[in-house]
Design brief:
By secondary structure, the chain is α/β, with parallel strands linked by helices. It has one domain: Rossmann fold, CATH 3.40.50. It contains 12 helices and 7 strands. Helix 3 (about 30-45) links the parallel strand 1 (about 25) and strand 2. Helix 1 (about 5-10) packs across helix 10 and helix 3 packs across helix 10 (about 245-255). The radius of gyration is 19 Å and the shape is globular. The termini are far apart. The relative contact order is 0.15. GO terms for molecular function: oxidoreductase activity.
């Protein structure tokens, strides 16, 4: 595991070991883990520029002011958008691409407080739309800017890293996947989807992580008896089991900047991230290889278990990475053609 003191030590070196003017895009950053990570990025970087996407203008205005207080030399741009819709994702990406030539960090954490089975207007399962399709669209749209960055090229997607489970190939969107298997299915879908993208961009590193139990505003929006029970449980034992939101922000900034998670192709241009401290090694990727460029990690930065690696290897052998790629592109084609009609 990576201890909190090791995380903090690495983060303290960001301003001295990484170049100024880093550009980051945070999707789902008007509360919770995204907001906490954005503020850590603002605090630790030299003259950064951060775009952050969310639905609340009030929250966006507040966070801009708070980031300015942390680092007045930075620039913080709020983009109001509902990123459950692919056409909106495209609009946001076009707005960013019109202003930027390169991006160093793409941080994706938008989600839902429950296993919502609702359908979007684009006929996607809302939960899967936010956690898989929207994030994949952001990555593919902004990948050229990430690949052109002269230093630090990284994608972080916050989900259930290390919790990959049974995949249902006949129902990738997860409309009918049993509730008990939903998290494992979406986690595997996301990891293998990232693998299909990573193959096309070996100079970019990708991290799919599980943040652990973090008390965020999402918990307050879980409805019904399940929400009541979850909040009661956190109230009673949260002190012992929950990761504090500030620590979660620090740990996620570490995932975004440490050389522990390098791309598959590592040059001498500083793209690997903050140099490793004593006792820290390069992480093992989802293929089982050290420094493979795609990492599925737990809340404390540890790599996915051997069991998960074997599970993913089995799906890889079945050609599932390519099947997911084809399915995803087909859905994007369907949605964009629908918008044109």
């Amino acid at each position: 595991m990576v201890t909190l003191s090791q995380v903090q030590s690495s983060n303290s070196l960001i301003s001295s070991t990484l170049p100024p003017h880093l550009v980051a895009v945070f999707v789902g950053a008007t509360s919770g883990i995204g907001e906490a990570t954005l503020k850590e990025f603002a605090k630790r970087s030299r003259r950064p520029r951060a775009y952050f996407v969310g639905r609340s203008q009030d929250a966006g205005d507040r966070i801009v002011a708070e980031c300015k207080a942390l680092n007045a030399e930075g620039e913080y741009i709020f983009v109001k958008a509902d990123v459950s819709l692919i056409r909106v994702v495209d609009e946001v990406c076009e707005e960013i691409k019109a202003k930027e030539k390169t991006i160093n960090i793409l941080f994706l954490s938008a989600g839902l407080p429950s296993m919502d089975r609702r359908e979007t207007s684009e006929h996607l399962h809302l939960l899967t739309a936010l956690v898989f399709y929207s994030r994949t669209r952001f990555i593919t749209n902004l990948l050229p800017l990430l690949r052109r960055a002269p230093a630090l090229r990284r994608v972080i997607t916050v989900g259930r890293g290390g919790g990959e489970g049974k995949l249902y190939p006949s129902d990738f969107p997860a409309f009918h996947v049993p509730l008990s298997a939903l998290r494992g299915h979406i986690c595997t879908l996301l990891t293998l989807g990232l693998e299909s993208v990573a193959k096309t961009a070996p100079e970019v590193s990708f991290v799919h992580d599980y943040p652990g139990s973090v008390k965020t505003p999402l918990l307050d929006r879980v409805e019904g008896i399940i929400g009541v029970l979850m909040r009661a449980f956190v109230f009673l034992v949260g002190h012992w089991i929950c990761v504090p939101i500030e620590e979660s922000g620090e740990r996620h900034l570490y995932l975004a900047t440490s050389a522990r998670y390098p791309s598959a192709i590592v040059g001498s241009d500083g793209a690997s991230g903050v140099p490793l401290g004593d006792g820290i090694d390069v992480a093992r990727g989802v293929t089982g290889d050290i420094g493979s460029g795609l990492y599925s990690v737990g809340w404390d930065g540890t790599s996915a278990s051997l069991t998960v690696q074997k599970l993913l290897a089995g799906y890889r052998d079945e050609g599932m990475v390519e099947k997911i790629r084809r399915h995803t592109e087909s859905e994007f084609d369907r949605i964009t053609q629908q918008d044109q009609n």
